[in-house]
Each structure stands twice: as structure tokens, then as C-alpha cells.
Write a structure and sequence with these properties.
By secondary structure, the chain is α+β, with helices and mostly antiparallel strands. The chain has helices spanning 3-52, 60-71, 105-113, 147-198, 211-247, 266-272, 290-300, 337-372, 379-400, 405-410, 423-438, 460-476, 508-511, 523-529, 535-545; strands spanning 74-79, 84-87, 115-121, 128-135, 139-146, 251-255, 261-264, 305-312, 315-323, 329-335, 419-421, 444-448, 456-458, 483-490, 494-501, 549-555, 559-567. 51% of the residues lie in helices and 19% in strands.
Length: 580
């Protein structure tokens, strides 16, 4: 049932109930009023009859008959004993046979109070009458009229009221129908506007003179405007996201729940060997190598894959992927072929630098021993040997000048040069530099650095020097066959870089002094490996100058963990920040 039908039916029911109640109340009130008015009229007629009643009782019957003919009412004369002396509704010869009326309530009341009335069925004429009795000379003069006359008046009035009620019902029905249609027109228009919004079409909003409906129309209009703005923002963000994904150097692949590829940026197509217009197979058939297929199957089975290295047409690629809540999957391909090549170049460079460092030391030692062996006695050769020693010593002096940083930092004469530092790149460079020291001793050196760790604002040279010192110490104090792990993590405002080894460890009593200059936990071992005792002191001052701190966790015989904790943006801004 629609709104108009409900409104029409509800209005009719209300009107019908109201009119029915009104008719019932009107009938009851009208009957009561008419009966009361009839009693008053009968009382007046009774008093007039008392005055018109002859003194001679023999003429009373004729008198009541005349009054009956003139008024149409029933007149009765009753003496004080209750005997009927005259009755207008019976023949004169029948009057003596009428039963005694002393028990009639109206007669008893009139004899007692002067006037009495009653509403009852007459035993004499057998009809329902209204009686009014007035005390008179002989006893009581009583006037009565049939209630049928009252019923006739009430019936006539009820017919008029029913006709008026029926007319009112018709008018109410018509008005209800018009009002319902007037109310539903704007609501129907609002419904059509809402459907247009749902279909993406421009809506047409109506106007209404009803404040509540007009407020509803305004609310829907405001909702449409807000939805339009939000849809436009979503479209803009979607376009920006699509442009960003398309511009990424990493390959991005997104699939639906059935494994069909719905997004593949240009980098992904390039790595997979597909053109921009070529159709891509479903995810399970996308890769040709077993290693890649295994990784994809793990993702389809609900596992997350993080930086699993695979080969794609001779290129080294890190594959990361994860399942999405709706059954979709997301894959990221990172081409690290150039990074691997650079790592190889860096390892070669470290080896060459190591050779360059060893050459002057070997020369100095060799020529010094030659001089000590007796060459000092030969001026010609000793002069040449001394010049070579001086040349190599100067080269070593230039390489060791950086050790003076400690004193300059303590004196406040050395300020960091801040720029954005990418932690994975920095750590990878330092670790690769340290591998040539670890490999001869059969020490494994591993890295656990998240690729998505945010850049920090720091001095890359200082940070590299600190990290190099910590890794070198770990190598020196780790036995052959040991393991060293370099890791990093990020907090809300800080980045932590740690070096963990399973070497000899540091006793608890020495941990409070480990960062002091020239302090050695094991002096004999330190001399054996050539340590000076300045490395940790320099590292501590450099990190503190960068606004950070170094933390130590160690247990003798089980290894140590040195952690560099640095703020992402230290309270140091000597110059505009650049990107390293």
C-alpha cells in the first residue's frame, strides 16, 4: 500500500470514528434535551389544565376530552385516594374501571411535593409515556405524552445529522486524497532524484511548501553536493595514484580474486618482457622460472613473500607480495641488477684500497729493516731508503688524519654536514667494505635492513665511520667461524642501526668504561689485533654530535650488540638539507 492509500485510508478511519462518536453523543444528548423540554411543556399544560378544570366533577371528563382534542396530550384527573376521576384516552363509561393510581410514582410525588414526573410504560393504554403530575383541588391533574413523539423528533434529527456526517465524510475523503497527492509529489520527485544520483545522472530537485519536506529536499541536495565533491576527490586521488604507480621504477602487479591481472605498470611489463598493449596471462602463468612460480604460489596460498630474489631474463629481481583481504594479490618487483653490479665494483674497490694501504706499510717496514740491518753505513743507499720511508709515511699520515676528529669534536670545532641518508644504502656500503676482513677469518656477515626504512637527516660520512668502527671491532673480537649481523629498525621518531656478534663479549664490570679513550677490555688481545682503544670513543662522540646515542648489550662469552640510535631530524640545521 503506497503513501496516498495509507493516508486516504487512515484519514477515512479517523473521520468515521469521529463522526460515529459524534452521532452517538448527539443522539444521547438530543434525546435527553427533548425529553426534558417535553417535561417542561407537560408541566405548563398541567398547570393550565388545573386552571381550566370545572368546579363540578361531573364535567371533568368532558373537560379533559376537550383538552386532549386541543393539545393531543393525555389528561388524567386523580383524587387524593388514587382513584381516577377523568381520563382523556378512554371512554367515559370505562373510567370507573381504571385501576387505582395511588402507587404511581408521579402521583405520589405530586401529592407529596406538589409536582412529580415519571418515564414508564402505561398500564392503562400500554405505551411508553412521559408523565407530569401537578397537585390540584381534587387531588392530582396528570398530563402525559407518548415517547414515540420524542423518538420521531430524534429520528428526524438523526437523519439530518447522518446526512451531514456523510457529506463531511465525502469532503474529508476528497481533501485527504488531494492532501496525500500534494504530499507525495515532492517525495516521488525526491525518489527520482535519488535514483538519478545512484545512476550517475544529474538529479532534479523539487520544491515544497511543507517545511519538513523542504528540509528533506535540502538535505538530499546537500548530500548530492558532498558526494559529488568526494567522488571528484576520489577520482583525482585515483588518477594521482595511477600516475604514481606508472612512474615507479619498481614493477607493481595487482590481481583480482581469480588471479586475473588488473594492474601492471610499465616497469612490471618491462621486467616481464611484455609490451604496453600486450595482454598478460593470469598470475599463475605469468612467470616462467620455477623460483618465481613457487613465490607466486605461496602468495596465492595466503603467505606474504618479502624480497625473494628471482631471475627474470638474466636480471636479478627482488619479488615481494602479499594477499589482500578480498582474495586479491599485490606484487612488487624490484630490479637489483645494477645494485648487484655496484656491489661487485665496491668489493673490488675495497680490495684495491686494502692493497694500497698494505703497500706503504710493507715498504716502510722493509726499508726500515734494511736500514737497521746495516744499510745506514752506506750513505748513498740510506738516503734513498729514507726518502722512500718518508714518502710512504706521508701517505699513511694523510690516511690517519681522520683520527684527529676526536679531539676536534671534543673541542667543538667539528660540525656535522647534514643531509638525508638512506640507511639501507649506507649500511650495505659499510658491510661490503668489511667483508674482506671477515671472510679470511671465516666469519659470516649478514644484513637485515628493511628496504622501506625512512631516510634520516644525518652526516653520512660520520655515520659510516661509526658503523665501520663497530663492524671492525666485531670482526676483531669474534673467533673464526663466528657470525655478525647488521640490522636496522625504525620507531616513531628514531632509527636504530645495530651490529650484533657472537664473539667474546664484554664483562659487566667493563661495560661502563668501554667508551673511554684507550680503555681496553683485553689489553693483550687488543695489542694482538692492533687496536688503539680510540675507536669506540670516537664513535660515541660522533653519534652524540649527531643528536643520537650508542647503546650496549653484552654478556661475556656470548657476544655483544652495539646499537646506534639516531633521530630522523636532529635539532641541527647548519645549511639547507640535500639528498645523498
Amino acid at each position: 500500500m503506497n503513501f496516498v492509500a495509507r493516508h486516504f485510508t487512515g484519514t477515512l478511519l479517523v473521520v468515521i470514528v469521529a463522526l460515529g462518536t459524534l452521532l452517538l453523543l448527539a443522539e444521547s444528548s438530543l434525546r435527553s434535551d427533548i425529553e426534558e423540554q417535553t417535561r417542561e411543556n407537560l408541566m405548563r399544560e398541567a398547570r393550565l389544565a388545573v386552571r381550566a378544570l370545572p368546579r363540578d366533577s361531573l364535567n371533568w371528563q368532558n373537560a379533559v376530552m376537550v383538552l386532549h382534542e386541543e393539545t393531543g396530550l393525555r389528561f388524567t384527573v386523580i383524587d387524593s385516594s388514587g382513584r381516577v376521576r377523568a381520563e382523556s384516552d378512554v371512554a367515559p363509561q370505562s373510567v370507573p374501571g381504571i385501576e387505582n393510581h395511588s402507587d404511581r410514582p408521579e402521583v405520589q410525588a405530586a401529592l407529596r411535593d406538589g409536582i412529580g414526573s415519571a418515564r414508564r410504560r402505561s398500564a392503562t393504554v400500554g405505551q411508553l409515556d412521559i408523565y407530569v403530575a401537578v397537585r390540584a383541588g381534587p387531588g392530582v391533574v396528570r398530563v402525559a405524552t407518548a415517547l414515540s413523539r420524542v423518538d420521531a423528533i430524534v429520528s428526524t434529527t438523526e437523519r439530518s445529522l447522518f446526512g451531514a456526517a456523510l457529506l463531511a465524510l465525502v469532503v474529508a475523503a476528497a481533501l485527504s486524497l488531494l492532501a496525500g497527492r500534494h504530499l507525495t509529489q515532492p517525495i516521488t520527485a525526491i525518489t527520482q532524484a535519488a535514483r538519478a544520483i545512484a545512476q550517475g545522472q544529474p538529479p532534479r530537485f523539487p520544491h515544497s511548501s511543507i517545511p519538513d519536506i523542504e528540509a528533506l529536499i535540502g538535505a538530499v541536495r546537500d548530500m548530492h553536493e558532498q558526494l559529488a565533491r568526494r567522488f571528484e576527490e576520489l577520482r583525482s586521488e585515483r588518477s594521482e595514484s595511477a600516475a604514481l604507480v606508472a612512474a615507479m621504477v619498481e614493477g607493481v602487479i595487482a590481481t583480482d580474486a581469480r588471479g586475473r591481472i588488473i594492474t601492471a605498470n610499465p616497469a612490471a611489463r618491462r621486467l616481464l618482457g611484455y609490451g604496453m598493449s600486450q595482454p598478460l596471462p593470469d598470475l599463475p602463468q605469468l612467470f616462467r622460472t620455477k623460483q618465481a612460480r613457487d613465490a607466486v604460489q605461496a602468495i596465492i596460498d595466503g603467505e606474504s613473500v618479502v624480497e625473494r630474489q628471482i631471475e627474470l631474463d638474466g636480471a636479478a629481481v627482488l619479488l615481494s607480495g602479499r594477499p589482500l583481504p578480498g582474495g586479491e594479490t599485490l606484487l612488487v618487483l624490484h630490479d637489483v641488477s645494477e645494485l648487484r653490479r655496484l656491489e661487485t665494483v665496491r668489493r673490488d674497490f675495497v680490495a684495491n684500497v686494502s692493497h694500497e694501504l698494505k703497500t706503504p706499510l710493507t715498504a716502510i717496514q722493509g726499508f726500515a729493516e734494511t736500514l737497521l740491518g746495516g744499510a745506514l753505513e752506506d750513505p748513498k743507499h740510506s738516503q734513498r731508503f729514507l726518502e722512500i720511508i718518508r714518502e710512504h709515511a706521508m701517505r699513511l699520515g694523510r690516511l690517519t688524519d681522520d683520527l684527529l676528529k676526536l679531539s676536534r669534536i671534543e673541542a667543538g670545532k667539528h660540525e656535522p654536514q647534514l643531509h638525508l641518508v638512506r640507511v639501507p644504502s649506507l649500511v650495505g656500503s659499510v658491510v661490503e667494505t668489511s667483508r674482506f676482513k671477515a671472510e679470511p677469518r671465516n666469519i659470516s656477515l649478514t644484513v637485515a635492513i628493511p628496504e622501506d626504512i625512512p631516510p634520516i637527516e644525518s652526516d653520512a660520512d660520520w655515520l659510516a665511520e661509526v658503523l665501520q668502527n663497530l663492524i671492525d671491532n666485531a670482526i676483531q673480537y669474534t673467533s673464526s667461524g663466528g657470525a655478525i649481523r647488521v640490522w636496522a629498525s625504525t620507531g616513531e621518531d628514531e632509527v636504530s642501526i645495530g651490529v650484533t656478534d657472537n664473539g667474546i663479549g664484554i664483562p659487566l664490570e667493563s661495560q661502563g668504561r668501554i667508551f673511554e679513550r684507550f680503555y681496553r677490555v683485553d689489553a693483550a688481545r687488543s695489542r694482538e689485533v692492533g687496536g688503539t682503544g680510540l675507536g669506540l670513543a670516537i664513535a660515541k662522540h660522533l653519534v652524540e654530535s649527531l643528536g643520537g646515542r650508542i647503546e650496549l648489550e653484552s654478556e661475556a662469552g656470548k657476544g655483544s650488540t652495539f646499537t646506534i640510535v639516531l633521530p630522523r631530524q636532529p635539532q641541527l640545521h647548519p645549511r639547507p638539507v640535500s639528498v645523498a
